[in-house]
Amino acid sequence: MLETMKLNKKMIGIVALSSVLISGTLLTNDAFAANATKTLKAVYSNIKLVYNGQTISSSSGQEPFMVNGTTYVPIRMAGEALGKSLVWDGTNKIVNISDTSSSDAQVIEMLRNQITDLNNQLNSVKNELTTANSTIASKDSTITSLQSEINSLKKDGNNGSLSRLEDDLNDDHEDDYSLDASISLSGDKDDISITIKVDESTWNNLSSSRQKTFLQDISDDIRREFRDAKIDGTVKNKKSSKLTTFSVSRSGTLSIGSSSSSVPSQSTMLSQLRRDYSTYRGIPLSIQLDVDKDREEVRVEVYIVKKDWDDLSSSYQTKILSSMLNDLEREYPDYDIEGYVYDDNTKSRLDRQTR
């Protein structure tokens, strides 16, 4: 007799069955003779077959039943539930069981399809992201281009305004006090530099109050156009030698520098520079100085071994001249100042700064 069927795994229940019903026919167990028949008293009590938590429906003639306390399940019902194909060979009295389809293969194929679908979705998102990044990059480029155009227009506008103002100033002030003045402007709307070339003898013959009035009139005209501008100016003779400097604060206050203040002699200033800078961060420097009081120009030259120069950081290289020029500017406030650093061996220029 067949033991009570357990369907925990696909083939266990099928192999364990020794007496089943095929196509509604009751089969005998292997204890019977090949052609013997026996009448059984089967009890049907609504027995259910559950596979992986799912109840398997039974058709007529395939309902599980009990005989003498043993439960029998039709092999076709169990086989179909487990995805098996059953063929009854009546001639040879053989039940052929074979796989109809691999559920694992179906699951794998389903998962493969899901993976393919997810990959397609991922590629679509990647394409959308690439397009979005490209759009952002294009917009950033456009913004940069537009900002450049705006800055250019602003610069052109400032330069155009300064150019027009320069023409107006020359028309209005060229003949003031018979100075034969020539006025040029540079800078922007916030910081304006002005250079005024005049006849030197006529300028020197003007009283300080008239010199101030002349410069104040020009500065007031500038501030009418650029109210918040800071103005720095230089008065020069026709040979471009500096006569005096002046400045106008953003509040409109005019300050005039002295044109012939007492300044140190060349030898005195050179001694001071050599005292303070003959050794810079342990590196020996050779310093030369030329002061032209007539043209109000100062030129300082520094000679250094190229290897020592290369060993310095860029900030320290810059400080060699900037420190000296700061000292010179304090002593010669109205002078044009130039500074140079040269290779002590080849005399090639390594740096240049001006004030």
TrEMBL record:
Pfam families: Cu_amine_oxidN1 (PF07833)
Keywords: Coiled coil, Signal
Residue intervals of the Copper amine oxidase-like N-terminal domain: 52-122
Coiled-coil residues: 108-135
Superkingdom to which the source organism belongs: Bacteria
N-terminal signal peptide: 1-33
Listed name of the protein: Copper amine oxidase N-terminal domain-containing protein
Species this chain originates from: Paenibacillus macerans (Bacillus macerans)
